[in-house]
Design goal:
Pfam families: Alk_phosphatase. Belongs to the alkaline phosphatase family. Its cofactor is Zn(2+); Mg(2+). Keywords: Hydrolase, Magnesium, Metal-binding, Phosphoprotein, Zinc. The chain is α/β, with parallel strands linked by helices. It has 2 domains: 328 residues, Alkaline Phosphatase, subunit A; 124 residues, no CATH class. It contains 17 helices and 14 strands. The strands form 3 sheets. Strands 5-6-4-3-7-1-8-13-2-14 form a 10-stranded mixed sheet, with helices on both faces. Strands 9-12 form a two-stranded antiparallel ribbon. A two-stranded antiparallel sheet has the order 10-11. α2 packs across α11, α6 packs parallel to α7 and α9 packs parallel to α11. The structure holds zinc ion. The site of zinc ion has 6 residues, from α10.
């Protein structure tokens, strides 16, 4: 025993000596090289038309899921993806997303990094981590240089990601103060979702005036019907255009819930190109915030449909590139991953069944509405899953073994365990929110979502071979794609603050 101990000590001693000797042959600090080599210097002439597309909550899993879903629709014998067009852009890179607080950032901190080039903390809009000093987003420099500025989002236009392109606030939740900065800005095109807290009810400012009235006084043309929006052009002046239909929390509808003829994110990008058109050029930031919201709710089908529509919106900008290839730059990235989505689930081992997601005909939000109608007419404790099975079948394709189509579509039949999960979730959904038990286990099962709806998306996702780990963001890096003037700077691996530095150099901002 004694001898054995001694021999372990001598092995350790030899290893220690060896490691000291060997370290002399290694670079002194192998970590110092991490981001130092990315090229942030551009020497050419600045482009006139710059598009920055940010898929909120969009990283590799969201893009891959959409590409595999589209590929599966080809029904080929072996797996085939259908690439989203922007993934074929000539320059591809990877950006780190952590912020000054955490490896798991939010849209305020990551947006600040992309728009203004600094690391800051969760929830902060264009201020340093101590919330002492403001930083200017790239849009202000570009405006000073004569470019017109557009900010487009399918979630509220004073939500964190659009806000980092025109506001400075200690907290992303200062919605009224952010909207005030929008109304007081000299930017040219704000479009998409509505305005949170437009009247300032949640603001510390007393006697707050409706920001829409302030925007009008400051010369904004405020429009919210389809006819008015489609009639906009480059003589319209400063524009605030809000989607005629807002679905949840002042956001445009999920793409899978958008009815024929209703305006899409692509429509707002196409219209922005008309409105911003001028000889000096323009910068347009376009966010798909609904990709993020779908992933928070663990609704894979909604995420896929909004990612596909995001690609359509990008292709509107690509038409500008095709017309003016020497004067255009398009950058596409995400701000962070959301949901911990992955492709692969224990229950389906080495297989996926993306076609099952085609059976989902509405987002979880629309199903929540169906459920709240049911709650209105059903006393608690009187609920039974049988009442809702027809709605579940038409919304998610799922059915019980006794369903008339069960033999035809066995792959969509609920197992006994899945059925039990749904019965339990329905019970929870019938409870008043204040009576619900948000214990740790409950938080993991349902997050803050409607228990029945989120259990249905979980079951369908898992049957398709997909799974989520969280209702929040994750620490994954994000891809960056670029085409046009300065595209080569976006190749490689770098920090999200480098995206700003690259854009600033390409635009000759000192
Ligand atoms: Zn989010």
């Amino acid at each position: 025993m004694k001898n054995k101990k001694r021999s372990i000590f001598s092995v350790v001693a030899i290893l220690l000596v060896l490691s000291v000797v060997l370290s002399g042959f290694l670079p002194t600090d192998i970590f110092s090289q991490s981001f130092a080599e990315t090229n942030n210097t551009f020497n050419g002439e600045a482009p006139k038309y710059i598009f920055l597309f940010i898929g909120d909550g969009m990283s590799f899993p969201q893009i891959s899921a959409a590409e595999m879903y589209l590929g599966a629709q080809k029904h080929t014998a072996t797996p085939e993806i259908k690439a989203l067009d922007f993934t074929n852009f000539p320059a591809t890179g990877v950006a780190a997303t952590y912020d000054s607080d955490s490896f798991i950032p939010d849209s305020a901190s990551t947006g600040t990094s992309i728009a203004s080039g600094i690391k800051t903390g969760n929830g902060i809009i264009n201020m340093d981590p101590q919330k002492k000093a403001n930083v200017d987003p790239i849009t202000r420099d570009l405006k000073d240089m004569g470019y017109k500025i557009g900010v487009v989002s399918n979630v509220p236009i004073n939500h964190a990601t659009p806000a980092v392109f025109y506001a400075n606030q200690e907290s992303r939740n200062n919605y009224y103060e952010i909207a005030l900065q929008l109304a007081e800005s000299d930017f040219d095109y704000f479009a998409g979702g509505g305005i949170n807290d437009a009247e300032g009810k949640n603001s510390k400012i007393t006697n707050s005036e409706n920001v829409i009235d302030i925007a009008k006084k400051n010369g904004f043309k405020v429009v919210s019907t389809k006819e008015e929006i489609l009639a906009l052009n480059n003589t319209s002046g400063k524009v605030l255009a809000t989607s005629p239909r807002l679905q949840d929390s002042n956001a445009m509808p999920y793409e899978m819930d958008r009815k024929a003829g209703e305006l899409s994110l692509s429509d707002f990008v196409r219209k922005g190109i008309d409105v911003l058109d001028n000889p000096k050029g323009y910068f347009m930031m376009v966010e798909s915030g609904k990709i993020d919201w779908a992933n928070h709710a663990n609704d894979a089908a909604a995420s896929i449909h909004d990612t596909i529509e995001f690609n359509n919106a990008i292709m509107e900008a690509y038409k500008v590139y095709e017309k003016y290839p020497n004067d255009t730059l398009i950058i596409v990235t995400g701000d962070h991953e959301c949901g911990g989505l992955t492709i692969g689930f224990a229950g389906t081992a080495y297989d996926t069944f993306f076609n099952k997601l085609e059976k989902q005909t509405m987002s979880y939000v629309e199903f929540d509405n169906i459920l709240s109608e049911y709650k209105k007419v059903t006393a608690p404790e009187k609920e039974t899953l049988e009442d809702i099975l027809p709605k579940i079948k038409s919304a998610f394709g799922l059915m019980t073994a006794t369903d008339e189509d069960a033999k035809k579509m066995p792959e969509l039949v609920l197992t006994a365990a899945e059925e039990a999960r749904l019965r339990d979730a329905l019970k929870r959904s019938m409870q008043k929110k204040e009576d619900r038990d948000f214990s740790d286990q409950e938080k993991i099962l349902y997050g803050t979502y409607e228990p029945l709806s989120v259990t249905l998306t979980h079951i369908l996702n898992n049957k398709a071979g997909l799974a989520f780990t969280t209702y929040s963001h994750t620490g994954l890096p994000v891809p960056v794609y670029a085409v046009g003037v300065g595209q080569e700077l976006f190749i490689g691996s770098y920090d999200n603050t480098d995206i700003y530095k690259k854009m600033a150099s390409i635009m000759n901002i000192q």
